[in-house]
Specification:
This protein is an alpha/beta fold. It has 3 domains: 281 residues, 4-Layer Sandwich (Purple Acid Phosphatase, chain A, domain 2); 71 residues, no CATH class; 46 residues. 29% of the residues lie in helices and 23% in strands.
């Protein structure tokens, strides 16, 4: 029996994310950008050390469509390591890689222009036959990020509603993927690589960096046994969407955390051993920069700063060398007692202090009245809340009228 073809599947590198970082004096590059590059180094090291036959990057190499020369250089250096080792490398075009104008080149097009050995660019829907360095052949169907304007060029789509256009795009994507499946040689292993959102997927912080309105592909379009493995990019949360059935439909997820929305998410890449009719895969976690939120309620404390500092010290092992934020609940009269300078001094050793947020208990809680919330009708609760926020009376009346219509229609 022949050895399965080993694929390393990763995506969403987003070189250029500079949130919560400062310039690294050793490199002249933002420290957070270096975090992303270090994670990519670790992935490539793994590929070189573990007999990977195909390196599949499922889109979004950079944060922006027009990355600067330094970021292009750093990405190219790392891809060259794979090329020099003879590992076929597929670079799929994601939405962040697309040019702002259709006639312009994508941010990864240069690899094809220079005909870099062992590097392919998946810029359009196509079934590639790739020979690994061990001489075996695998089929990879590439489906880059779908652009509505290219898909909906027919006159029949003019004057349609957004919902109708979404349905038309979903149908076209399903037909295009079926067309690729029809080209597959059933004697050879086949992988579908795509960069898009899939119905039933759980979103993460990618929505905060998403460019334009998203296209959603139905999961049923991918759950075709023609494919032995479906490698996806675009959504930053690692997940498998087919419930353990064949084929695995897998988002590798991103390699680094973008913000606190990804605080609890593991980061890494996927290694899949693929053969015809079967794929065994596993998630390989990387040591991404930790994001840590410290929450404290000091409303009952006589010395709120001391209580908060004790909480910070208690969790020092978690936030050391991490991006950290503090969220503290306090009474209005305690606000001035929370000494920001002391709090930030206590966080010395954190990689970056994202902020000290004071959630002050406002008077509107009392303005809701002494009645228990469960004793008030929804319209009464809304009215009291709007009054507590200082909403003008005419605006309150208009909002209450709309709310009554909604509540009535729901009955």
């Amino acid at each position: 029996m022949t050895r399965p073809i080993r694929i390393l599947h990763t995506a969403d590198l987003h070189i250029g994310m500079e949130n919560y970082g400062q310039i690294d004096p050793a490199t002249g590059i933002n420290g957070r950008v270096m975090d992303f590059l270090r994670r990519f180094n670790a992935v490539i090291d793994y590929a070189l050390d573990n007999e990977v036959d195909l390196f599949l990057f499922a889109g979004d190499a950079y944060k922006t469509r027009d990355p600067n020369s330094t970021y292009r250089r750093e990405f190219a250096r790392r891809i060259k390591r794979l090329a020099d080792a003879g590992i076929p490398t597929m670079l799929l075009v994601g939405n962040h890689d697309l040019p702002s104008m259709e006639k312009k080149a994508s941010s990864v097009e240069i690899f094809r222009t220079l005909e870099v050995p062992n590097v392919l660019v998946g810029s359009h829907e196509h079934l590639h036959r790739i020979t690994t360095r061990r001489g075996e052949t695998i089929q990879v169907a590439t489906v880059p990020y779908p652009v509505r304007q290219r898909l909906l060029v027919q006159d029949e789509h003019k004057n349609r509603t957004i919902a109708e256009l979404d349905a038309a795009v979903q149908q076209l994507m399903a037909e295009n993927i079926q067309g690729l499946a029809a080209q597959v040689d059933p004697a050879l292993p086949a992988v579908l690589a795509g960069h898009f959102s899939v119905s039933e997927a759980s979103y993460g912080s990618e929505r905060t960096v998403m460019l334009g309105r998203d296209v959603v592909v139905l999961k049923s379009a991918l759950a075709d046994p023609t494919w032995d493995y479906v490698a996806l990019g675009h959504i930053h949360k690692h997940q498998e969407l087919n419930g353990g059935r064949h084929p695995p439909i897998v988002y590798a997820g991103s390699l680094e955390r973008i913000d606190f929305g990804e605080e609890a998410e593991p980061k890494g890449f996927v290694v899949a051993d693929v053969q015809r009719g079967q794929a065994d895969w596993r998630f390989q976690e990387v040591e991404a920069r930790r994001f840590v939120t410290i929450r404290a309620d000091v409303r009952q404390e006589t010395d709120p700063t001391a209580a908060l500092l004790a909480k910070i010290a208690q969790r020092s092992a978690e936030w050391t060398d991490a991006v950290v934020r503090v969220i503290v609940e306090a009474r209005p009269e305690q606000s001035g007692q929370l000494r920001d300078a002391d709090i930030r001094r206590a966080l010395d050793g954190a990689y970056y202090v994202a902020g000290v947020n004071k959630e002050i208990e406002r008077a509107y809680r009392q303005r809701l009245g002494a009645d228990a919330a469960e004793g008030l009708l929804p319209a009464e609760l809304l009215a009291r809340y709007l009054e507590s926020k200082g909403t003008p009376p005419e605006r309150i009346r208009a909002l209450l009228q709309v709310a009554e219509e909604i509540l009535h229609s729901a009955e």
